[in-house]
Amino acid sequence: MAETKASGKPVPRVDEESKGYWEACARHELYVQRCRDCGTVRYYPRALCPTCLAADPEWVLSSGRGTVYTYTVTYQNLAPGFRESVPYVLAYVELEEGVRLLTNIVDCAPDAVRIGMPVEVTFDDLTADTSIPKFRPVS
Amino acid sequence: MGFGRQVVIAGVYEHPTRWAPEKTQYRIHAESARGALADAGLGIGDVDGYFTSGVSQMGILSLADYLNLQPRFLDSTSIGGSSFVAHVTHAAAAIGAGLCEVALITYGSTAASERFAVGTGGGFGGDPPDQFEAAYGPTVVGAYALAAQRHMHAYGTTSEQLAQVAVTTRRHAGLNPAAKFRDPIAVDDVLASRIVSAPLHLLDCCIISDGGGAIVVTTAERARDLRRPPVYVLGGAEACCHTGAGHRDLTDMAASQSGPRAMSMAGVGHATVDMCMIYDSFTITVVMTLEALGFCGRGEGGAFVSEGRIGLGGALPINTDGGGLSSNHPGMRGIFLVIEAVKQLRGECGVRQVPDCRIALCHGTGGTLGLRHSGATLVLGRG
Ligand SMILES: [Zn+2]
Description:
The structure holds 2 protein chains of 2 kinds. Chain A is built from 1 helix and 8 strands, in the order H-E-E-E-E-E-E-E-E. Chain A is globular. Chain A has one helix at residues 19-26, and strands at residues 31-34, 41-42, 58-61, 65-74, 88-95, 100-105, 118-125, 131-137. By secondary structure, chain B is an alpha/beta fold. Helices cover 32% and strands 18% of the residues of chain B. In chain B, the strands form 2 sheets. In chain B, strands 3-2-4-7-1-8-11-10-9 form a 9-stranded mixed sheet, with helices on both faces. In chain B, helix 8 crosses helix 9. Chains A and B meet through strand 2, strand 4, strand 5 and strand 6 of A and helix 4 and strand 5 of B. Bound molecules: zinc ion. The site of zinc ion has 8 residues of chain A, from loops.
């Protein structure tokens, strides 16, 4: 997390295994991986299937829709970039593709978030090259 | 089953400090080692196995250097706050295999006096998962709160029920002169304390202190002519639980794997456990651990902790020293779970003694519940 945006928030350190994921995020597209051998959908992206260790997964474009699996409204985080952002909502969203990912729920009052709430992806452009998927209530 | 030889804990020491700005972390390790070896009636020259964690990546070598140890077995397994519970099992296995005979486990930390924000600071490395997590601002408290919120949703667990854990253990802390916070609190005090990461309030969170401790593990044979009554290591197991490639059930814990394994190895059932030391990083950790260990059904933990069972005088007293919620939490609490359990089994706890304590269970949770965590369960018995 060497690179940081002016806000001080950490910017993802992209590696060879995650490059495709982050390049898609920069285009505002969310992808998950599916194993060509055993069919298991996984998140986060990685080179080998953690179910059967097969390589060469296929990239599946996510619908970007899902529901809030769980969440917390964070009132205290002393780390730079976050201490100015409280309160913010940290959540796991369960995508329609079946995987749960850690994210933030944005564009709504923190107190309005509920488990089971339908949400859709929206991208936060951290830098010119890096965007991260966040979620907002389905309008 | 077992470790091949009868393995015992022959000495323990909990460093009394809760605030030690004048001391280094290494000095606390050394003072704790001195205390535990004196308790056992052994000298530093008797130690031939060394276990520690919570220091730098190769800090075990620097600590062996500082203590001038020449161990023939070294282990700095680092799986978070549960590490020291796991070290006891590892020591027992090493001793059982004849790889060492007198194992020393030490811990020391100056988290409080260095003003290290254990639960609400940053601190992300460059491991693969970090790039998918750090940018969203998960704190340690937040990662436990994610599990708490899901547990409340799934089972109707309430903030009042979680608060019962803090209230009960604070009452225990009032019976422990070394505890950092000893004044009684009520459920309303917990609910009125500020929210750190919803649904967890400040008083749902463990405190931050300095501190340390040490444990001496050896064979029953070697312990026969030592100072203290031996405490038998009956069973031990560990497990880990993580995001599961996106398929994790956040109401499950590593304890649901390690608990049954350790109890089966020890050959004890739930009804024979006289007291538990449960890692109480947060109130929710206790509720979920009791469920995962099988002391109640999944989802019943909230009611279980609210009916007087977990307090002294109840059916299953827990955290009789006041726990991390009230006594001490220098960042990694596992060693204190074992030390208090040993004192209870030796009948040395005075006003907070569990009557006729024969079997104690320790469970350490390390890391963060909502992301990746370890579980280490240890079953101890008196002779
Ligand atoms: Zn596969």
